[in-house]
Specification:
Strand order of the largest sheet: 1-2
Low-confidence stretches: 8-18, 242-284, 314-325
Number of helices: 18
Order of helices and strands: HHHHHHHHHHHHHHHHEHEH
Radius of gyration: 20 Å
Helix content: 55-70%
Mean pLDDT: 78
Shape: globular
Distance between the termini: 36 Å
Structural class: mainly alpha
Number of strands: 2
Strand content: under 5%
């Protein structure tokens, strides 16, 4: 009986390993995945735990070498790294999150930390302050350890800490204490008195100057413009993906020219020829979004935000509820 159990166990392990994409194959996809979050997510789910981190590091390096404005690059880093965190799976999500803060340029982390705080890592109202502080301590320990081997590692860890404080809501004070206690000793005073208050705009204009100056970073992106560019990129990526494939990878035919995201998600299975679609990840957590996500017109990015037809209450940028994201870090 014991030998049979072992045989089944090792067979399962062998099957899992055989399903993983070899390094030579994923390395060849780095360029493609640096441009397309859909491709990246489809790839990262097929990698081993170690390869997920190595793959994301190479993708972020590729994005760093691309031409473009600070806003365009920040939008790209946001799209790609959001897809990486979503595709990492519960067992590897914290390791991948640490890789995000260790490999995205510090100036782009000014955008990434704020958007992650709004969606993926926002503290649900049902999660107690002490529980959230414990989660932060665990997560920050891993992030600080990984960032210690990166250039400007203490500043990078500071951005991760600010993300958690920003995401804490009315537990911000407890979150700040948890964050500061995990940072490298040499920056704790600056983090408490300068970095966090300035980043959150506490009784002052919001600014990352002290952090970016310490890291000798590049130009800080305009946050609103970067997010607008991200929104437009996600529209294009989503519609491009929907024109060719559904979840099983089969051809579904072209969507008519002029179709908008809201048209598609309201159309239903019969009109599209696939099973009932669901809203794109990352669009369910905010009550208001850019009008371009509904109309498909880039010029609507410049207009005030509108009511989000996909608003899903406690959804946090993935099909998993907010508490699940946090409790599995």
């Amino acid at each position: 009986m014991k030998s049979r159990i072992l045989t089944v166990f090792f067979a399962a392990v062998a099957m899992a390993l055989s399903a993983q994409m070899p390094r030579s194959e994923w390395h060849a996809k780095v360029g493609e995945c640096a441009l397309d979050p859909v491709s990246l997510k489809a790839t990262i789910v097929k990698l081993s735990s170690a390869d997920k981190k190595a793959f994301l590091a190479e993708v972020n390096e590729a994005i760093s070498k691309m031409p473009g404005s600070p806003e365009a690059k920040a939008a790209q880093f946001l799209a790609i790294n959001r897809a990486a965190v979503a595709g990492a799976g519960p067992a590897d999500r914290l390791e991948v999150l640490a890789e995000v803060f260790a490999t995205v340029p510090t100036e782009s982390l000014a955008v990434v930390n704020e958007e992650f705080a709004k969606n993926e890592f926002a503290r649900p109202e049902t999660m107690g302050k002490e529980q959230y502080a414990k989660i932060i301590s665990t997560a920050m320990g891993k992030i600080v350890e990984r960032c210690s081997s990166s250039e400007s590692g203490a500043v990078r860890s500071g951005f991760a800490g600010i993300m958690f404080v920003r995401a804490a809501g009315d537990a911000a004070d407890a979150a700040q204490s948890a964050v500061v206690s995990t940072l490298p000793p040499e920056v704790r005073l600056d983090a408490r008195n300068k970095w966090i208050p300035a980043a959150l705009g506490k009784e002052q204009t919001k600014s990352y100057d002290s952090m970016l100056g310490a890291a000798q970073a590049g130009e800080e992106p305009d946050h609103q413009l970067a997010v607008s560019m991200y929104s437009q990129q996600m529209i294009e990526s989503m519609l491009s993906d929907l024109q060719t494939t559904h979840e099983s990878g089969e051809e579904i035919g072209k969507i008519e020219r002029g179709t908008t995201p809201v048209d598609f998600f309201n159309a239903g299975a019969d009109a599209i020829g696939v099973k009932e679609p669901t809203p794109p990840r990352g669009m369910i957590a905010d009550k208001e979004i850019s009008g371009a996500l509904i109309t498909g017109r880039p010029e609507d990015n410049e207009k005030p935000p509108v009511k989000n037809p996909w608003y899903g209450g406690d959804g946090r940028g993935d099909s998993e509820p907010g508490p699940y994201w946090l409790q599995h870090l």
